[in-house]
Amino acid sequence: MSSTPIRILIADNHKVIREGLRLICEIKGGFTVVGEAENGEDAIDLSRRLKPDIILMDISMPKMDGVQATGVITMENPQVRVIVLTVHLEGQHIFKAIQAGAHSYLPKEVDTPKLLTTIEDVHSGNTQLDAAIAKKLMDEFERIRNLDIAEQLTEGEMEVLRLVAQGMENKAIAKELGLAESTIANRIQSIFDKLHVNNRTQAALFALRQGWASLDESSDEINAAI
To answer: Is the CB of residue 165 less than 8 Å from the CB of residue 222?
Structure first.
């Protein structure tokens, strides 16, 4: 533990939670709680005035939520380190909080030793994410990456990809869409390039797993590949 007590600001819209965290931080951790905020706007104001080392930040707060407040605080003063402490454990919340500048993300049911250790580690300059939170964060990265890929595909390419996923060959796709086979071939090559795949089966599996296409029962080859 640092020889100089770590200075903490607690931001949560529930008074009982703020009081509980204060007791844990001061009595169990030996830290100094310099202030309490009940909404994001107050957290920003107190951060500017009190310059805490660590902020324990809830997400769901009135006036301004914790993610927005974290973004403002870390932009204005990168030395302030934010630990999100919340009931929201969905990947999108974790991603947005880390993107805003949070250094750790903890569930509110975290046990006291874990909370105190995280405060110490984050104050020392580390970013702390336990395995479960890190997995959700990476899953969200992957989801966003796939959304980006989907946006890169043209409407015509997505239409062709759905038919490829149903096991249709170029000639049948061309007839279905009223296009030349050469046009279908060009679209398929573009799809391969954008999805970073090498063949029709890989492209079909990618589309099916992302929910971009449905599997035709007659497509035995793709069914077997899955």
So the answer is: yes
CA-CA distances (angstroms) from residue 175 to 33, 118, 161, 196, 214?
71, 61, 15, 27, 20
Query: pTM for the full model?
Result: 0.68
In 3D, which of 20, 23, 83, 81 has the Cα closest to residue 52? 81
Q: What is the pLDDT of residues 9-34, one digit of tens each?
A: 999 999 999 999 999 999 998 999 99
Q: Is the pLDDT of residue 226 over 80?
A: no
Beta bridge partners of residue 9, listed in sequence order: 35, 55
Distance CA 216, CA 226 (A): 13
Cα distance between residue 57 and residue 37, in whole Å: 9
Q: Which tokens go with 165?
A: 């996923």
- Paired residues of 84 in beta bridges: 57, 105
Distance linking the first and last C-alpha atoms of the chain: 53
If we measure between CA atoms, which residue out of 100, 159, 102 comes closest to residue 127? Answer: 102
